[in-house]
User: Fold this.
Amino acid sequence: MAQGDTKKYIKPWRFDSQGITNRELSRTYIYRDDIIDDFLDPDPDNRLFFLVGPKGCGKTLLIHYKAYLYFNSYEDDRNNLQEVNASRDLVESLDFSEETLTQVGIKELQSVTVWNKVWEFAIMLVVLRKSKVGLPEELKHIEKQFRNARSLSTIVVEVINNIEKYVFSDFFSCRNAMRDRLDDLQQSYVMFVDRLDQALDSLLLNEDYKYLIEDAPDTLYLIWRNAQYALLRVAYSLNTKHKGRVRIYSTAREDALTMPTQEAINIKDYCVRLKYSKEALKEIFIHNVAAMRERELRGKQGDSPFMRFFGFDKIRHVAACDKHGEAQTESVFDFILRHTFHRPREIVMIGKRLYDKFNRTAEVKLPVTDNLIESIREQVNDVAWSEILHGYKQEFILGFRNDYVQQFVTNIVSNAADRSTLLRKVSREATDYLYRVGLLGSIDGKVQRFVPGSTFAFRKERVLPHSGWYVLHPTLDRELQGLGDVKKWYYQHSIIGDECSFETPDVVSWNLNRGYPVDYFRPKKIAGAQDWSGTRIQVDPLALYNGIFINGVRKNKLMRQQHERINESIQFLAVIAQLEAAKAVAGKFNKDMDFRIKTLRNQAMNLRGNTRYSSQITTTDATGLNLFTDRCFGRMVVMGLLLFLRFSIVEARNCVTSFSDKRLANPGEPETAIRFLRRSFFIYGLPGEGRLSSLDKMSILEKASDFERDCLPKWWRDYFLHSLLFNSNYNDEHRRYLREYFEFK
Assistant:
């Protein structure tokens, strides 16, 4: 141990609780809160018997620790307590891995009643064998029948492998005499039972079962769930009878408590349900950092735990950008957390990989560089894919539906999809399944929500909720990486992950900082002469476009303000679209929308500002660039109004100049309006009439810049489908009408 490193060494980053010996338990970090402390309390009057939660949430470690505390608390008075576990360990870890069920066994073991008989018999046999009371004389033949089955696991295996012998006879009538015998116990007996869910996984994950039975997944799920429920049911009954002399502590998965019975409700009062908040998971990570040796830490004393472990505490995203076009950043712990299913085992698993790769090697002495950060990012992505997701898929009886993942990836080609696109390109069976297993999230307000991993996998009543957008879990990012550059498939407006914020396209800026050439932003053709003389621009327009779109994104604050002003055109159009929708619904359905309309008008006025769009531009300095920025703002707005919001030429002119949202029965003076729009915004293809035809719209888009052609149609589709239609003010009838009103196809 290094000089000065005198703390009692606890091995950090241990996620396999099976590898922790009883002697090591006292030196193992256990996350504890009030609920867990209540369960761990070794007081014999403690009524919390069961730990319930998903795989990977620490059930095994906690029940081992409970057993350790329980037995050690009575070390000085062992006459009053006797361990009944048939194994030499503190906890009976069940194992059915080498067994195969017969077709008859599969049929019978779907029954809670059958499992109830199996568990009660097996537990009572273990208890009576270990006690001084023993089996009654008339049941001594059972000792011979089960002479090779000494542990709880082997007794259960003997029964389920010989269903016809034990279930189809009166064999289990022996339980009455065994119950009476338990009442004669003079000492208390305790048993800790663990890993039934994993033992059942091993028993039921046999591909041959699909050929033996119809509806194999549903049938095997019933066996898996009912076996766990029956164990809790029997333990509950034994714990509350027989003068309190028998105590059975057990772990189970959440599904065990989904039975629609009063007894299941009663059992919940005796359960601790393990759920970990973000802060709890962060504390687990921090405690593992604290357990590391000083020489293994990158940061100096006094730094935050994450600075000490990584050498940095923030990480830039490679694709998601903010409204300035800059890469979004997140805390390094948030980055790790969203690549898990929020289970302690997975947090420690990632920490273990990074610890072994970067902290236990000579690399810990190297300075933090971009290459190091990218290496850490790659390692987290790899653990999420190859270990966390791979292990997660193994939790599903008869296999995970990877074909549903491929259906999403192949047809959506992104890690986010709007509702219309998703339901059009991916089957409802696939979307419901991916949602239930926690791999397809929905948007709740502005927050991404994924259901907890494996909690509702077999609950088919849980279907995809209504949402404007849906997002794919980050553990599946590797599936999409084969599609090419991450920026081509990653949703650019938000970092994707459970509980992360989500920005829809209507409230985010169009990202101009993607390395486009200046010609991407310049119109292909303008109204009037191509020398721009009719636009009152007396300088080289290429220099103006360069100043705003190329230099403006990267250089100084003033240029960035110009960039933001152009992006405000999208926000302005979004407000006008909401205003038009509100007025349309109010007029058609006589719905009171006055307050909303007034609010939207105020928002539009604030965004439009006071601008003289036809002012002459004679310089390329800040003054000239500001004037040209306003022209670009107005051009985007007018094109959006004309192409998508059904404004006439005059209505568009009025909206962008004095902000009038009035619809005109007789547009009047279209020539004057056309001249203004051509001079101010140099839009090519404006017709001589007041309202545009489909051909007019195609002509305008054809001669617009590539930026405008990419931005405006995408904005309208995204905004209409995912925000405007799903405003809480509208019902389904309103939405159908708005599709007609805006002629949306």
Notes: The mean pLDDT is 85. Residues 635 and 681 are 5 Å apart (CA to CA).
